[in-house]
Amino acid sequence: MATREKMRFSADRNGFLDTGNQWFVTSRFNRRDSLVTMKLPPSAVFVTTLAGSSFMSLRLSLILSGFLLCSISLVGCSRQAPIQETIVEEEIVEKLLGAPDRLTSLVKQVPDATYQSVENGVRRATVKTRLPDGGMMTLWVYQPDPLPSGKLPCVFIAPAGTRLVHGSELGKGAEAEHIPWAKAGFTVVAYELSGDPGSDNASNAQMKTAAEQFRGAKSGLLNAQVAMAYAKEKLPFVDSRRFYTAGHSSAGTMSLYVAEMDPQVKACVAFMPAVDVRAWLGVQGLTTIQQNNIVPEAGAYVSKISPMTYMDRLSQPTFLVYVGNDDKAITGPAEKFAKQMQDLGKDITVVKIPTGTHYGSMIQEGIPLAIEWLKMVDSMN
């Protein structure tokens, strides 16, 4: 167990860029001191938080086994008004998107889910629902077992491991990212992304078809919206006012993107996301996509789906985690994104893990911290 030490808050606006060998978290809230940075020894994980747009005062107590107990009182008020409308990409025609009532009618046709135990305290159902274009999408729906009384919040998670120009099916092993949320008392709806190429060695023709299907689903936004419609209509134990997104790597990018685009999302968690898709793909990746005609005008397209492009719309509380020694195409843009969000007065909590691994740090440190943070945010909704 880490030793508790007395610490002072620092109002150094650039503090979150200078970590040394320490873990640290920065939070932005609207007081005279613009940035709160809490630093502790490497043996401790430490979390500060922020006052979001939905509340005026807050006391956070995070207790993690093997980690430090931090209790912080903050007062603030976000300058950001909640976003009320959904952006629609220019390339998608209205008849393909489907009006909300059409999504409702689609998911109402889905048979009731049958749940089976996947681990002690967690049950899961596999559900197949139609998309507006006639295609099918698989959902994995997790619930705590036994199911508590009262309505539950719901976390929506896309599959990781895509190039963000195509989609992916739900794959074995992804449960490790889902089950901890259900054990913590959340409903989880994991959803596919349209346009799975079928293989890492897919041909250019297969990649082109997959990319077209992905764009046809609003670059994954439509998949998320169908998943949310399903939760609203078919999961009576879910509170539709408490929808949250989460994800790791490319799914972290999707988590941010969906939160930016759809006001149904009330908070967002992103682990090691590519916030600048163009920088993440790099010159070689973009050149390959462009020369093989996988995505027309690839540079403009990936800029359009990057969370960095729409950060002004991200009014929800946001929890961002990244690893200092991860790919520079992730860490550099993540630091820039965090600072710009803070400069805009956004509700963001930033966790930088100095050294770790792209996947393992999400499982071991990121998810436990994010669960406690989201519990705090959810208690205010």
Give a structural overview:
- The protein is of the alpha/beta class and 381 residues long.
- The protein has a domain at 98-317: Alpha/Beta hydrolase fold, catalytic domain (Rossmann fold, 3-Layer(aba) Sandwich).
- Helix content is 31%, strand content 22%.
- It contains 10 helices and 13 strands.
- The chain has helices at 94-97, 100-108, 175-183, 204-216, 221-234, 250-261, 277-291, 298-304, 328-343, 360-379; strands spanning 24-28, 35-39, 57-62, 70-75, 116-119, 122-130, 136-144, 152-157, 187-191, 238-248, 265-271, 318-323, 348-353.
- The strands form 2 sheets. An 11-stranded mixed sheet has the order 2-1-13-12-11-10-8-9-7-6-5, sandwiched between helices. Strands 3-4 form a two-stranded antiparallel ribbon.
- The two termini are 32 Å apart.
- The model is unreliable at 1-23, 26-79 and 87-98 (pLDDT under 50).
SSE layout and pairing:
Elements: E1 24-28, E2 35-39, E3 57-62, E4 70-75, H1 94-97, H2 100-108, E5 116-119, E6 122-130, E7 136-144, E8 152-157, H3 175-183, E9 187-191, H4 204-216, H5 221-234, E10 238-248, H6 250-261, E11 265-271, H7 277-291, H8 298-304, E12 318-323, H9 328-343, E13 348-353, H10 360-379
Parallel strand pairs: 8-9, 8-10, 10-11, 11-12, 12-13
Antiparallel strand pairs: 1-2, 1-13, 3-4, 5-6, 6-7, 7-9
